Amino acid sequence: MTQIISDSGFELPKEAINYSAWGNIIAGNVAIDIPSDADLNLLSGDLNRFKIIRINFPTFADGRGFTIAKLIRIRGYKGHIRATGYIIPDQYAMARRSGFDDVEISRSLAKRQTESEWLFRANWREHDYQKRVGFLR
Amino acid sequence: MSNNHTGKVITANDLLNGDVVYINSQLKWALRLSDAKVFIDDASFEKALTHANKQQNEVVGIYSININLSETGIAPNHFREKFRNNGPSNYNHGKQSEVL
Amino acid sequence: MYNYSEFDDAFIKERNYQFRNQVKRRVNGDLTEDEFKPLRLMNGLYLQLHAYMLRVAIPYGTLNSSQMNKLAMIADRWDKGYGHFTTRQNIQFNWPKLTDVPDILDALAEVKMHAIQTSGNTIRNVTADHFSGAAADEVEDPRPYAELIRQWSTDHPEFQFLPRKFKVSVTGSKNDRAVIHAHDIGLRVLHNDGKIGFQVIVGGGLGRTPMIGKVINSFLPEQDLLPYLEAIVSVWNILGRRDNKYKSRIKITVHEHGIEKIREIVDERFAEIKRSFSGVNKELFSEIKSAFLPSLLKLQGIGDFEFAYENDALFRSWVDTNTHKHKSSNYIIASISLKNHGETPGDATSDQMRMIADIAQRYSHDEIRISHEQNIILPHVHKSDLTQVFSLLKSVNLNTANIGLISDIIACPGMDYCALATARSIPIAQEIAMRFDDLKLEHKIGHIQIKISGCINACGHHHVGHIGILGLDRAGEENYQITLGGSATEATAIGERAGPGFSASTIVPAIEKIILFYLKVRLGEYESFIQTYRRLGLEPFKKILYPSVSKSF
Question: What is the pTM of this model?
Answer without folding.
Answer: 0.94
